[in-house]
Amino acid sequence: MKHSSRSIVLLVLALSVPIALRVLARPLNGVGVVQLPKQAGLTQMLEGAIDIHVHADPDSRGRFIDAIDVARLARSRGMRAIVLKNHYEPTASLAYITRKEVPGIEVFGGIALDLQVGGINPAAVENMARVKGGWGRIVWMPTLTSENIECVDAKQTDTCGRFSGCPAASQRSKLKPATKY
Fold first, then answer.
1. Is residue 148 part of a domain?
2. Number of structural domains found in the chain
């Protein structure tokens, strides 16, 4: 499959923007708003980009920027959209509020099917999709509480099975019925 230079650049940007924001962001007047240093071509490179993996406050894990400020920052750089992600709760309602506060950029949310939302849970997905505005559009398979992560961690800490309440998405390379739903 042949890829254009533009599609490769956009893919690299989508994957690297969260890292770049963390490394380059600096507090502005000590109030939590961040500012990226002006770099020749950086804004032009981000024009029209979509960051599909944005972790922002509010979150149970400390984040360095909240959803509204990251949307403002992305909009100021000419980005087309961001997708808010949280491993512990759906982000469709946060996307709705952020869109109201920061017009001029598309903001989407989703749900990661980790133990905190019941694992592979069609009801949680349906509920997320029904949130006002319809901005919950992405479903991530289990991440932090996935069977794979548990057993990778177990090799180092002997804790495989600690999230046994989170069902696997597949078994013997075949999707389980709830995953197909």
1. no
2. 1
Say which range, 58-72, 87-101, 116-130, 165-179, has the weakest mean pLDDT.
165-179
Any domain includes 147: no
* CA of residue 139 relative to chain centroid, distance: 10
Which residue, among 129, 85, 130, 82, has the nearest Cα to 102 in the 3D structure? Answer: 82
* Domain limits for position 100: 5-142
SS3 content of the chain, % helix, strand, coil (to 5): 40, 20, 40
72 assigned to some structural domain: yes
Per-residue pLDDT at 34 exceeds 60: no
Give the number of other CB atoms < 10 A from CB of residue 39: 9
Q: Are 168 and 177 in contact (CB under 8 A)?
A: no
Q: Is residue 104 part of a domain?
A: yes
Q: Please report the pLDDT score of residue 146 as a whole number.
A: 72
Q: How confident is the model at residue 138 (pLDDT cuts 50, 70, 90)?
A: very high
Nearest to 64 by CA among 16, 100, 28: 28
3-state DSSP call for residue 31? Answer: coil
